[in-house]
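Protein 1 of 2
SEQ + STRUCT:
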Amino acid sequence: MLNVFTLANGRLFQEEIDSLDELTPARPVWVDLEAPTPEEKGWIAVKFGLVIPADIIDDDLEESARFYEEDGAVHIRSDFLIDDDETPRNVRVAFILHENVLFSVHKEDLPVFRLLRMRARRIPALIEDAKDVLLKLYDADAEYSADTLEGIYDDLEKVSKKVLQNAVNDAAAADALAAIARQEDLNGRIRRNVMDTRRAVSFMMRARMLNADQFEEARQILRDIDSLDSHTAFLFDKINFLMDATVGFININQNKIIKIFSVASVALLPPTLVASVYGMNLKFPELLWLGDWSYPYTVALMVASAIVPMWYFYKRGWLT
């Protein structure tokens, strides 16, 4: 899918392009390619003289491959977060700033892009050129990360109430661990996302491609990102605490089961001893004296030898 964005009356207008004839008269400040086909890349080459490499959004983490200038064009590759309920993920986006036009290439639509498109349509004079588009995308990315962090706070608060305020059985503990693991993964992705945004904005500042107002906006974005770092660090600590607390409750439940088996085995030792003694092939005087009452006597003795330890354990609180 190929979308071009043009400025009119200080607002950003979007137009979906389906052919080279539609693209030819356009004078965009931003060209967005979502999962572009080779044909659409060919239109870009014909219209703008820009060849988009086939591997432009490959997962290459080398610094030299993510931020560089070549043939008068600035190339930046950044990761953007998608906070999906099912599969949160980071999506690679390649930016090319060529002849005052920003080209973005990615495989799927991103919440940050939708947020910028909505704001640029509603707020006049928000964007003046292609560099503004790029900066506003990173600004929206930092804001999106902050909103996602607030969601993690809320979700962890729910888990905390379940774990710390209620009796936790194994099923509830398993659900809590699953929720905690998801929030830990999401928090890690936010940490990676803001780190990547910081690197991209720092590159733009070092490259001296920004005017004074844009440079100050870039500095503000970096300050916002720095404030997010302390929040992610705090959330990692909270996640580790809840993880340890949940695992501790699981261990307590397991210890209760083991304690019951231990108490039961100890309580059955006296009856076993009685049965072992009177099971020997010997003549016991008390049994000869009791006659027909010898069997009830041994059974009663075994029952009593089991009840007395159980009563003692109950009084000591070892059965609860």
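Protein 2 of 2
SEQ + STRUCT:
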Amino acid sequence: MNKLSELQKKDLEHIFHPCSQMKDYENLPPIVITKGEGMYVEDEFGNRYMDCVSSWWVNLFGHCNARINKVIKEQIDKLEHIIFANFSHEAGIELGERLTKVAPEGLNKLIFTDNGSSSTEVAIKLSFQSHVQSGNPQKKTFVSLEGAYHGETIGALGVGNMDRFTDVYKPLIREGKKVKGPDCFNCTYNKNRETCDAECFEHMEKYLLENHNEVSGVIIESMVQGVAGMRIYSPKYIQKLRKLTKDLNIHLIADEIAMGFGRTGKMFAIEHAGVSPDIMCVGKGLTAGYFPMSIVLITDELYNNFYDDYSAGKSFLHSHSYSGNPIGCRIAVETLKIFEDENILEMIEEKGNFLRTLAKEKLKETPYLGEYRQIGLIGAIELVGLPGERAGYEIYKIALKKGAILRPLGNIVYFMPPYIIKEEEMEKMLDIFNESLKEYLERFQ
């Protein structure tokens, strides 16, 4: 093992890191970050890193944003927490007003949860219970797409389709139905995501038409399947799905945990399709990288299925101790204010256009490049046929030494930077990728 600092020794003595094989830490010890500012974080040795993945897709406006820091301090001095059953507070009320104004039409009610996986659990339970209370208890199947990721709790794993997350837990999981969905990089119809008519929808259409009496809901990652490799697909797929689910009395559940709050250039990714879901899960960027919080938004129709005398047994009994925490709500309110005050969506469009043009130039001679794809400020480089094992991980390690966090998805290297990224930092980001790939390939010469 590399020589460790005292902090690294203490970390490895006690901490089991997420999504990690701890044996890997023998060669790449945990990097202990001591501070952050803007696009950058700094470790205990003074090394600085560009946070090109927004610290697992959560950071929108850079580390230690002055506006958000200010409101947190104000809120802490006012109210840190209160039980959210039978009680409320100003920050939560204001968040409800602001979020429903920018959400897709019809999503007027909010249920607070703590993280993305929990919001998936809520969505599944809500959908099923609503059908039961509407006289359709047979509707208990949930449908998702091949390659889907909707979280890692047991219910969420049931609608996920990533073997590395689910295989060992199969005996515990109630599996939903996984339907072949869009895979535009390997399109079997020889179409293009920008111009196709979502011919691949035929698989979903066939399954739903044949089994709709048993289907409670269809859950999708709007526009981009993130963990599957930033698979971007046509909005026409969502349009077709929305029409069919309405016709067949099936709830459409939009998982916007990763893609909401501007990531794709719209406030919510489903807006690219111009439709509204019955249920929408939001999180990550909701609190701009500061606080664990997610929200499930639902229609009035769904809400009314639970509204009755307590004795009727229609209450939705799902809670978290920290539901609706005032600090998290105050951060979320400020996040929405920043979007409005600083014209964030216009900024994303401008910077996204610049990144697209820049990537086309910078990657034109990149070896093993299968595809560069982008939507908003999400860019993904699909590398095909690379030599060696865990090539993406090895490129990631090299990039760290060059001062950039480029965490891969298999052999797909993606960019999801904070919106404050500057043009020269985009150039640096792409240059570091190219340099890291080149250095990796030199091992095989």
